[in-house]
Specification:
9 helices, Rossmann fold, alpha/beta, seven-stranded mixed sheet, binds S-adenosylmethionine, single chain
């Protein structure tokens, strides 16, 4: 199974299985920080009231939409994910809180039919860890392809902090405590055991950030709360 954890079908099944408890667990696994990080990753960017095109890649249940709306109040928001179960919840959120204005797209980002040179902004929160190096390269070139020249982006992922004590604590919490909470919420801890396995391999966003730079995107590495989350922001150059 170890080699298959990056297989898109495996990842899809994992998220389909976690969809009923994902939002609560996401909050618990990050001690509530995930909400803050989704806002923080947009802080370096100017508020923009124009009708710009924004896409939330790996949208899950639309957890970043409030932050997007706050920063880009008049944006056309598109949101892509390949998990039908996560998207069912996103659909509900779209109906209840976003007047069905978010354009939901069920596709695999690694073979998407998204238009080229179309988006002013690409955002992606907590979706990097389930990609291997080759898939990150594809994600980077897709991000470059779909962004307009000068378009900007921000990615973030839960990471292993550099501080040894914090890292030890975080590892214990994610690898031992979270599966127990997962069993209580889900009756099955397997899905939540995977969380640490992905983060353990991912470590932090340094490699992904390098990969985005290598495809020709201006990229700046970022660390949040002592490295408990890391990511990168950047821009597609004019040429
Ligand atoms: C950890 S969730 C993140 C959800 C949300 N962005 C958040 O901030 O909580 C990762 C999401 O990425 C989706 N995903 C993973 N690989 C994908 C792929 N290749 N194409 C489309 N969606 C993918 C999963 O279905 C899942 O909903």
């Amino acid at each position: 199974m170890t080699d298959n954890i990056y297989n898109p079908e495996y990842v899809k099944r994992l998220f389909n299985g976690m969809s009923s408890s994902y939002e609560r667990m996401n909050y618990i696994t990050s001690f509530g920080f995930s909400i803050r990080w989704r806002t923080e990753i947009l802080k370096p960017f100017q508020k923009d009231n124009h009708k710009i095109e924004v896409i939330d890649l790996l949208t899950g249940m639309g957890e970043t939409w409030n932050s997007i709306k706050y920063k880009f109040p008049n944006a056309n928001i598109s949101a892509l994910d390949f998990s039908s179960e996560m998207l069912k919840n996103a659909e509900r959120k779209n109906e209840d809180h976003f007047k069905n204005e978010v354009n939901l797209i069920q596709q695999d980002i690694l073979q998407s039919k998204l238009p080229s040179n179309h988006f002013d902004f690409v955002i992606c929160s907590f979706g990097l860890k389930t990609f291997n190096t080759e898939q990150l390269e594809k994600l980077a070139s897709e991000t470059k392809r779909i962004l307009k020249a000068d378009g900007q982006f921000s990615f973030v992922e839960v990471s292993k902090p550099e501080n040894t004590i914090l890292k030890g604590f975080y590892q214990f919490y994610l690898s031992q405590v979270i599966p127990i909470i997962g069993r209580l919420l889900l009756g099955n801890p397997t899905e939540y055991k995977m969380l640490w396995r992905y983060i353990d391999k991912f470590e932090n966003a340094k490699l992904a950030s390098e990969i985005f730079r290598n495809v020709g995107l201006k990229t700046e590495y970022r660390s949040y709360f002592y490295g408990c989350a890391t990511g990168f922001i950047g821009q597609k150059p004019e040429k």
